[in-house]
Amino acid sequence: MTNPMIRIHNQETDEVIDREMTAEELAYWEADKAAQAARQEAEAQKAAEEAERLSAKLAIYAKLGLTEEEINTLIS
Amino acid sequence: MALVQIPTPTVETGGMTLLSTTTLSGTATTVSNINQTFLRLLIVLESPMWNTGTDKIRIDLNNVNSAIFTAGVEETSSNTFQAVGLNGFTLTVNNGFADRSNNGSSYCAIIDQYATSAASKPVQWFGALVIGDQRSFNHAGGFLSSSAITSVVVRTENGYSFTSGTLKIYGVK
Known about the structure:
The structure holds two protein chains of two kinds. A two-stranded antiparallel ribbon of chain A has the order 1-2. Chain A contains two helices and two strands, in the order ββαα. Helices cover about 65% and strands about 15% of the residues of chain A. Chain A is elongated, with a radius of gyration of 25 Å. The longest helix of chain A has about 40 residues, at about 25-65. Chain A is α+β, with helices and mostly antiparallel strands. Chain B starts with 15 loop residues before the first strand and ends with a strand. By secondary structure, chain B is mainly β. Chain B is globular. Chain B has strands at about 15-25, 30, 40-50, 55-60, 70-75, 80-85, 105-110, 120-130, 135-145, 150-155, 160-170. Chain B has an eight-stranded antiparallel β-sheet with strand order 1-11-3-7-8-9-5-6, with no helix packed on it. A three-stranded antiparallel β-sheet of chain B has the order 2-10-4, with no helix packed on it. The interface of A and B includes residues 6, 13, 32 and 36 of A. β1 of chain A pairs parallel with β2 of chain B, so a sheet runs across the interface.
């Protein structure tokens, strides 16, 4: 299996090289992708928790007999 | 009362020089050995497109993303904005795969004191994505590294291959 291709443009010489990633670059790339995936998962988890909190809050307001307009005023 | 002529100031600095133009290709496009004789860099990324998948554009400095700290605002849907704090020149809004066929998205980044050993180099990153309509954004912060910036890497967060797009780097006096 070939490694992903990258382009490197040397600004000093204006030379452009297209080549496969070296093993070292690929290792860095894979580690970065894993870190990125972990970050995205954490963000998704945070968003889900936030949505859950809001949903619980809305349920309590509804139990209090507030109108939709009143609830919107409280949470906005 | 006599009129006093205000002298015209002499402009001693100023001006912008195009240092390089690079067509995006591969899973990452790097501009290396960046000229170190200017006061700031202006990075312009025009219509980057990739082969598949919904993803976000990202720019790394010196091949490092985590040292860039920014706070800003992004338009998450038409005329709806959210405040965000991020590591890196990246966004929380995806550039949809389906929208790439008419992609007019463009991005601009300014890096001050890029060629110095300043511990925090001021940065700003702004632009608009085309996602059916458009999503504007503006982030500002700093690159927290005392190393001079000698390379810029453009990629998507998940590493898709670029099919087109142009990276222009200007030096500003």
